[in-house]
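Researcher: Here's a chain I'd like modeled. Treat it as a single chain, no partners, no ligands.
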Amino acid sequence: MGALSGIRIVEFAGIGPGPFCCMLLSDMGAEVIRIDRSALVGRQTQDPKFDPMLRGRKSIALDLKDERGVEVALKLCDRADILIECFRPGVMERLGLGPDVVSKRNSGLVYGRMTGWGQEGPLADQPGHDLNYIALTGALHAIGIRERPIPPLVLAGDFGGGGMYLALGVLGAYISAQRTGQGQVVDAAVVDGSASLMTAFFGMLAAGKHEETRASNRLDGGSHFYNVYETSDQNFVSVAPTEPKFFANLMRELNLETSDFDQANQDNWRKYKEQLAVIFKTKTRDEWEEILADKDACLAPVLPMSEAADHPHNVARKNFIEVCGVKQPAPAPKFSRTPSVVQSPPVHTGQHTRQILDELNYSDKEINELTSNNVAQQL
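Model: Modeled as a single isolated chain. Structure tokens:
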């Protein structure tokens, strides 16, 4: 029984931040029903088990361009607590599934909308992807090497600025709905969340403590005490003793004088980095981890995904699990009384269509009519 057990969510199939958000909510115990496109039934090009973000929900496949498919979707929303959709602005309205229509039938519903640019604004109707959204907020400009920005996967945008903020937003609105009986629309945009993630750095910039030239600051690779160093086996270690006491521990273990690598002497940071790079290149990644273990020096090996799950700390924390033979991150965070679990492996599109229609009290005759007319599709 997860923390969100008993909460019903309808997810309109999308990509990126929407599925990530619904995975988080499902892992915490919510019942998530995903509405997929009926035209995609039987056309998945790979086994769904290789898309862990789709774990933990059932799938019904509907043709939302047919009013009978829309009616099925509306009936699902009638009994839902939260709706999640990731379409461009106006798409749900054109389908007859906009918040005005749905909320008239279910006034307590939380209507979560996930887009890149938001529901309004000069760019709202424009296409884009994660990299474009974080480019507009200062995040992309701040990440990378001195010569150019480097795309940070989709962590700062789609997942961090998008899916996580959508999850936070719909849960906040759900708590409000429990008090007031009234749902509301949550307009979650990747560009908004990405900007929010930059809050601390905007404060540093205003205070004159952050330079906009990349790799010039304490936390962006500019300093020698918060950086990544190559080791003798072509691997890397992360070194992050930003506090003086931890930095002193590192210097002691490296047989160096703290005063010779003054953290406050920003003019010499580049020289210090070059000197430390030579030292770290003398041993392997694993040797450095062993040498500095329990020394409070803030060093950790830089592990590829293929090795991360086997690190003793991740093993002890049970941070990775295996579902249908696929290694993947475990649900997070951890709860003391209502632990999160993966409710089920990812399923095929339309795998639960008949079951869900039956639960909506459609008769066998009605279900057969819907499926025979391709309004609803069962795998």
